Amino acid sequence: MRIITTLLVALVLISCKEEPVRINDSAGKLNDILIVVNSENWDGEIGDTIRNVLARPIDGLVRDEAMFTLNQVKPESFKGMLKKSRNYLFVRKSDTASVGIRKNKYATPQIGVIVQGKDTREIAEQISENADNIVTIFKQGELTEKQRLIDRVRLNTDRITDRFGIDMNVPTAYRYAAVDDPDFTWLRRNIVEGTMDMLIYEVPLSQIQRDSSVVQDIVAVRDSIGLIKIPTDGGPFRTEPAFSPYVNETQVDGRFAFETKGTWEVRDMFMAGPFLNYAIYNADKEKWLIVEGYISAPNAVQRNYLFEIEAILNSIRFVEKEDNQ
Asked: Do strands 87-93 and 32-36 pair parallel, antiparallel, or not at all (unpaired)?
């Protein structure tokens, strides 16, 4: 996961000090956020700013899909069941401009972000200046919730632990698709519109350099594995050459990793979709551990499928050697 320990220290996101009320289970669909603001502001500069931050398109998807689904209610309607929404952003006027976090105020788990300022412009500025932090807080909360739900129906991943020295939280909806290859694990899940797949393998450190060639290196590794390991009815399974993937530095279980989001295709066939790839630096083995998920569902809304893959891959924990014998 990205390092967010400085999130609440370096910036103005602060915890509200209001007295808690009786806690009840929160409600709401994954990646939904309730926006509490009057209709005039929702239709104006404040609403536009909120949409630009929280409904921005997700990197790597073939079609534009919003990061979060936003539902607006007036402040006077924020009561009853609406107060149990797992995620909400509350806009209010105040002489002091700030962005605050309110955790588990009306239900649990629950994250509320309170934005305030003396006028429309100041409120919009607070949202813009803290945009990345607001997104991170909501997204981390949703990843934690998704991982909690997956943990209820976990697939037995002992063979992954034995081979790669990692534990990961995978739901039982997935099955092992490559069982005879000791150096390559392939998991598949059938969905109504197609399939979701995950791949796990290792490559020498020399194949991915931590320099300006990293994008080309990651693409080369993906395409070489796709050519050998992923059977198709057409050309090779590869990275879509017309679109350069997004590559960011991050961490998985405290270890350096490259996160790559992009589009895969099968050459000469009308097959394509999004992928999420992590190349995790494993100094113990002097190798990169590659974990990837991709979606083959061209007619589906893909945001929540990609989010499930992200939750699974970010659940990876390296197992100590003495526990992996």
From this structure: parallel
Residue 93 belongs to some domain of the structure: yes
What does the pLDDT read at residue 180?
79
pLDDT, tens only, 141-181: 999 999 999 999 999 999 999 999 999 999 999 999 987 78
CA 284 to chain centre: 27
What's the total number of domains in the chain? 2
| Model confidence, pTM | 0.87
Q: CB count, 10 Å around CB of 120? A: 16
Residues in a beta bridge with 71: 34
Higher-confidence residue of 6 and 204: namely 204
CATH number at residue 165: 3.40.1000.10
**Beta strands in the chain, from DSSP E residues, in sequence order:** 13-15, 32-36, 69-73, 87-93, 98-103, 111-117, 166-167, 175-176, 185-191, 194-204, 237-239, 246-252, 255-266, 271-282, 287-296, 317-318
Q: Residues 208, 263: one domain?
A: yes
Cα–Cα dist 264/241, whole Å: 9
35 in a structural domain: yes
- The label of the residue with tokens 């969905």 reads 191
pLDDT 10s digits, 298-321: 889 999 999 999 999 999 999 976
